[in-house]
């Protein structure tokens, strides 16, 4: 059956099952973000909705020729692939090798600078859409029902506002949760909600709470500066003064890519839905060759090792340190590594250009997962209940691993400073200390025991927004308040003024009475 | 098949479907609260769980001889039915006829006093359980998996703590949300979250926000006094110093009897689940005689009228005012009323001792619902999309109607001051102005369009707590903080002290330099 007929059949099915099918416009992000978002989009397509993804001609893992039934609207950006490669290499080098050698505060600031640097290309990409009148007209004419935006970086919200269609964010986090907090009205009490990227947990000492507050101030400042950075573009595109925050805040739903297996319990709002791990699925059988290697591990089992889709090579020194540690464990190791084979590589370790990570993590022989700490990988480990050795490098990775450490399911190793012994000890700990497996299994049970699966919840709310042309009944009235009204500062000021007035009047009256009676007393005495 | 065999069959089914079945102990409340809670308990029984309800020998609508498969553990209280009747009459009279004639603040305080008065009997009931060693031993021996407590009034939490079993609250609200806020750590920003019973909405003027804050202070004071009132009993029963708040705060889940169709969007926590309207179901056919009367209304349709399960009689004057208004509308009216037939009763109005309220509200001929504003009735109206005329009398009824008014689905009439014209106008408005029907239908669509039905969510979380012996992963760390830590007052103090120290040192240094250079300058000048 041709693709066209499959689409028509699905559309009919959709009408039959849901009453009506919609059209979804998508503003994606590349790399691991795409893996997550694509799962939602494929499910939407499966349910008969028409999904169109806006993609630049220069991109990485977003494949516009795939057979998933998604439509791609490709637009041109004013930079080439080589330029983008160079740009990305600079960003990665800075984040992996430079920032970790700085002090904590310098690193946090450095990360912000990197994001601003990175957002230069995002801005060019954004301009290539919003100032392309032909494209905007085409999109407007298509009459989409909703725009789903991967809002780790801006622009999706702006396009939704230009097209006057409801917006749904799909988001892991923004730096320090500032956009969720200031634009989404999400309450973030600093006493028990650790600021994202702070590597703190919900149980903080006094000094940690001080650090959390200072981090929050730092990110607030970054946010102010980042928002200003985009203000002109947003205002120009909409033809009226506006801000990035104002536009992002118009979202109907915020689909957050975590859940309470990963996140520390915190206050949230009815239009925030925590759908972490929606891309996870049961393991499929491994390729024959790989299965043979896995089975050869006997009772010792295997260790799965990946540093994610962005890091393909390591320095010779680093790869030798790692391989030497792996060579000393009785487990077989499957290592996703494209670089030169390290001299210290043991016979128990095999490197692969690519591994079926989810299938390996779901294999009964798997004992541990060495991970850079990306959210997708961590969620696959949680899904299958596998303890982790975290080797975080940049972005939210150190923070993610801090979460897993706090929940007792991971041990952390410092990527820049680690020795062979460090990695070996970490591996031995998570494999031999049963508490790590128990905690990973506990998280897995929490993940699997939800009233509705995360993917179904994400799809439900996107469909809800299409069906009802929004979700206004979930939007808190906090959006209509100024910051001083939100914190009731005007009310507190008024009440204090009232109390002060009463105290003043009472005091004056007392004084008046005292004087009067004093005088009368004196007069009487004189008399 | 005997009841015993049905139970065994269900237990087998439960094991087959869910892996294991549990035993649930229940601390209920009487009247409309029971209607709501019973729906959950029957569903739990249906799924094969053993449910035992702790009930006093003196009670009202809780029927221990019903055939729902629930077990009842009846205990004796130190007061008789007549005494309880008299007590209840006093409470109702005070709330319906006395409080509404007072000023707003006096009425709020009066309501608190009534609750304290009412809680005297609740305390006696509580003591009859917690100091009954034989009963407590029996309950302990039974090894229940969870205690589900209707926590509008205290004691369920205390019994759970004594038996050392996980606790789940089923709750409409506590006065001013103080228990949710102080014992459950629920954030309630006063700028857009109206205090319960305040009759305010989420969109407040400056003076309304002042009122909201003052109401919150008042309720905080009431709470402090109410908590103190129960402290001795709780401490004595547990054999250690404790408070009602501390014990209530140990709950694993808070099942709240509202949803975003009724509630204004507000921050909440992962262990709060909004399951409003769980008792609602599709309408069943009416009794033949009633259906005939309904059909005789033709295109005009019918109006359903009930003042709830607690109010059975009205004064002659009041019933005549009401009946005269009903007589003037073209609709047929079905009025649940046990009192003397009013002289002004029109031929279009029939009174009934009892009406199948849900079936009537779900009837296609129904145009409006005259209601006292109890949550159960309001939810049935929302479920079926019926606009309301609210005649609130006491407790949360005025606040409930304020919610429905704000959402454009109700008109309010003052029970104590209403004239025939007032009621007539209100009825004409909700029937003839299409916006009321549209808004009621919008709320109905919101209610029906949820990822999981409220009843299934309530049951899911009770089962979750049984399966996992709690839900600790949803419990915010706010519970471990003191009030000043929670509000970061210690951190703010510390940071202010740091800033002050830095300013002091810099100022002193500047002063020192000025003096030194000043002196040198002077010396040079002199030289």
TrEMBL record, chains A, B:
Signal peptide (from-to): 1-21
CDD domains membership: GT1_Gtf-like
Enzyme Commission number: 2.4.1.17
Gene Ontology cellular component annotations, sorted alphabetically: membrane
Catalytic reactions of this protein: glucuronate acceptor + UDP-alpha-D-glucuronate = acceptor beta-D-glucuronoside + UDP + H(+)
Primary localisation category: membrane
GO molecular function, one term: glucuronosyltransferase activity
Uppermost EC category: transferase
Presence of keyword Transcription: no
Similarity annotation: Belongs to the UDP-glycosyltransferase family.
Protein name: UDP-glucuronosyltransferase
Organism placement in taxonomy: Eukaryota, Metazoa, Chordata, Craniata, Vertebrata
């Amino acid at each position: 059956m041709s693709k066209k007929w499959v689409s028509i059949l699905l559309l009919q099915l959709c009408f039959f099952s849901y009453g009506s099918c919609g059209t979804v416009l998508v503003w994606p992000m590349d790399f691991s973000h795409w893996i997550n978002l694509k799962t939602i989009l494929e499910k939407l397509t499966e349910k008969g909705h028409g999904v169109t993804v806006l993609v630049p001609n220069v991109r990485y893992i977003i494949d516009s020729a795939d057979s998933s039934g998604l439509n791609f609207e490709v637009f041109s950006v004013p930079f080439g692939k080589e330029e983008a490669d160079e740009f990305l290499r600079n960003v990665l080098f800075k984040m992996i090798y430079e920032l970790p050698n700085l002090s904590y505060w310098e690193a946090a600031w450095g990360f912000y600078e990197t994001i601003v640097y990175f957002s230069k290309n995002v801005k060019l990409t954004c301009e290539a859409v919003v100032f392309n009148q032909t494209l905007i007209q085409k999109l407007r004419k298509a009459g989409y029902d909703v725009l789903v935006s991967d809002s780790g970086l801006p622009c999706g919200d702006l396009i939704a506002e230009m097209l006057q269609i409801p917006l749904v964010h799909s988001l892991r986090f923004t730096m320090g949760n500032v956009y969720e907090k200031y634009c989404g009205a999400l309450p973030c009490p600093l006493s028990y909600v650790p600021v994202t990227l702070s590597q703190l947990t919900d149980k903080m000492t006094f000094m940690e709470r001080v650090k959390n507050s200072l981090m929050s101030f730092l990110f607030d400042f970054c946010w102010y500066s980042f928002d200003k950075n985009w203000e002109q573009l947003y205002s120009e595109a909409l033809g009226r003064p506006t801000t990035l925050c104002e536009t992002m805040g118009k979202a109907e739903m915020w689909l957050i890519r975590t859940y309470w297996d990963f996140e520390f319990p915190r206050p949230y709002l009815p239009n925030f839905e925590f759908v972490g791990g929606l891309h996870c699925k049961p393991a499929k059988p491994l390729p024959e060759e790989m299965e043979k290697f896995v089975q050869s591990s006997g009772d010792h089992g295997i260790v799965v090792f990946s540093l994610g889709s962005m890091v393909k090579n390591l320095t010779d020194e680093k790869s030798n340190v790692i391989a030497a540690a792996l060579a000393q464990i009785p487990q077989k190791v499957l290592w996703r590594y494209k670089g030169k084979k390290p001299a210290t590589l043991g016979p128990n370790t095999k490197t692969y250009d690519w591994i079926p990570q989810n299938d390996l993590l779901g294999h009964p022989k798997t004992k541990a997962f060495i991970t850079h700490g990306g959210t997708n990988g961590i969620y696959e480990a949680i899904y299958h209940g596998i303890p982790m050795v975290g080797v975080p490098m940049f972005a939210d990775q150190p923070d993610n691993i801090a979460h897993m450490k706090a929940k007792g399911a991971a041990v952390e190793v410092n990527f820049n400073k680690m020795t062979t012994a460090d990695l070996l000890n970490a591996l031995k700990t998570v494999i031999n200390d049963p508490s790590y497996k128990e905690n990973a299994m506990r998280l897995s049970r929490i993940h699997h025991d939800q009233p509705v699966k995360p993917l179904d919840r994400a799809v439900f709310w996107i469909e809800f927004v299409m069906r009802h042309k929004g979700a206004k009944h979930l939007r808190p009235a906090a959006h209509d308040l100024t910051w001083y009204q939100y914190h009731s500062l005007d009310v507190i000021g008024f009440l204090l003024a009232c109390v002060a007035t009463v105290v003043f009047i009472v005091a004056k009256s007392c004084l008046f009475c005292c004087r009067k009676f004093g005088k009368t007393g004196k007069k009487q005495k004189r008399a």
